[in-house]
Fold:
Amino acid sequence: MASAKVPGQIPSGYVSPFGKNKVVMEERIDDSLACVAILTNQTLADIKEQAYKFGLPRFGPAWVYNEMVAKLLFQHGLIGSDEKEAGDFASLPDVAILTIAWNDDMQFGRSVVWHAVRGTDTQQAFNYILDPASWLDEKHRITADFRHLKIEPPFYYVEVTPRPDTAMARKAK
Structure:
């Protein structure tokens, strides 16, 4: 399958609404939790504590399923959809937890935050990824240049939207 790598740049001066907290995963299953922390401007430690309260084991084998991600997002005024599939970048929503580096043999990948910024009269539309992977160079943590990532269609993602009963949702209208 051909790679869907689309190099780009984040416009000079752009500040991500999700980049306030530098969140880096600490262990192998932290990627989804780190994405929740990024999206909610919380620390990874705070999100992990909430996940433990929702039943994620502190020790031993564990996996962070979409149901856990949805519960955590909901606590912070956001809705996480069921997992969806897109055939290209243009089909992805404005904000999502996107699965990249899919491994067919293992049947899993890792999670990053996808943000599609709509164009305005003064700014062209662009997309970027916030990546919590601990092994990355700092320049790849918030990037519109996807050449270093294994990111190929179909894309699997969880769309993230404001909860309708929040001030955030009313402001977005």
User: Anything to note?
Assistant: The longest strand covers residues 108-117.
